[in-house]
Amino acid sequence: xxxxSGSLQRESSINLWLIFTVEVIIYLSLLFFxxxxxxxxxxxxxxxxxxxxxxxxxxxxxxxxSRTVSYFLIPVAMAGKLLxxxxxxxxxxxxxDRKLDFKAVFYIVLSSELIFILASLLRTIxxxxxxxxxxxxxxxxxxxxxxxxxxxxxxxxxxxxxFMSINxxxxxxxxxxxFLVSQKLQVKFEHGMRFILYSYGSFLITWILLVSFIQQLxxxxx
Length: 222
Hints:
Layout: H1 2-37, H2 41-50, H3 58-95, H4 102-112, H5 114-130, H6 136-140, H7 147-150, H8 160-165, H9 168-185, H10 189-218
Helix pairs in contact: 1-3, 1-4, 1-5, 2-3, 3-4, 3-10, 4-9, 9-10
């Protein structure tokens, strides 16, 4: 029995690493495609000119140096994000006297990340084929499927980041987390969603408020 249990645990770990590797490769591929076909030299030159920089190649040089670094940062950033969200959900379940091991929670978070991969894929397709991109601001201000697309606000508005962050994919992501948690715990969907709202939902609101506060401190002085 111990041999079978150990084999299943190793297989589960292999599956987690396999899914994580595939998702990282997809993100890296989308980043490469974006660097080649969206953030072109023409876009960088136009952005640099709009900013009023005298050296036309300044932004291009900076971007070229940071481009290589970004490929190495994606796996680290993604692993940190997945682990942090998993820890929050796992801690909430522990405080709620619900038994679900960390590996199962991590698998739920890892599987739900497919929603954001789909969002990145659709965003890339739209920016390449359906939206004219002249400067980096056109990319940063892409608000499709977010509240900002319905209620557009100025960049320095206090609610700008909040409206940009709350979008259809974020809602679906939370619904999927709640569904998978309820399935693992064998409870009703509303109970699973309650755990997600208490954990990830609280973190998301805190993050949005923190970033909005920082923006209000620095954007007006720029």
